[in-house]
Amino acid sequence: MYDTEQLNAIDNAILEHLIGAGIDHVIFMDLSGNAIAKHSNGKTDLDATSFAALAAGNFAAVDAMARLVGESEFSLLFHKGEKLSIHFSKVTEDTLLISMFGKNISLGLVRLKVAETIEEINRVLS
């Protein structure tokens, strides 16, 4: 599906734009729940495989809700927690980028860095 050069470029984009900005965990995954790339700042543990599977289900449920209300899709999801927040963004028709971050980072910065990362990933994949 992806060659080594593409995977390395995706890893570098995630590390530079997202982990470098202070985001705790990042998963680039397909909509089936398979993690393509996963990175962490090393400060907390996360079962990325289980998380990706659950995230795929969550995104599919929200996608079905979007269609019920007449939207073609909701391409961005955000869950705010007491300690961590989760930002889901659709990258391509069949991939998602999930970023988990703490209170020390603003949602605005996350959205900016995610947009930069998605742009770079799409460039790599085209």
From TrEMBL:
Residues 11-101 form the Roadblock/LAMTOR2 domain. Pfam families: Robl_LC7 (PF03259). One of its GO terms (biological process) is positive regulation of TOR signaling. SMART domains: Robl_LC7 (SM00960). GO terms for molecular function: guanyl-nucleotide exchange factor activity; molecular adaptor activity. PANTHER family: LATE ENDOSOMAL/LYSOSOMAL MP1 INTERACTING PROTEIN (PTHR13323). This is Roadblock/LAMTOR2 domain-containing protein. It comes from Desulfobacter postgatei 2ac9.
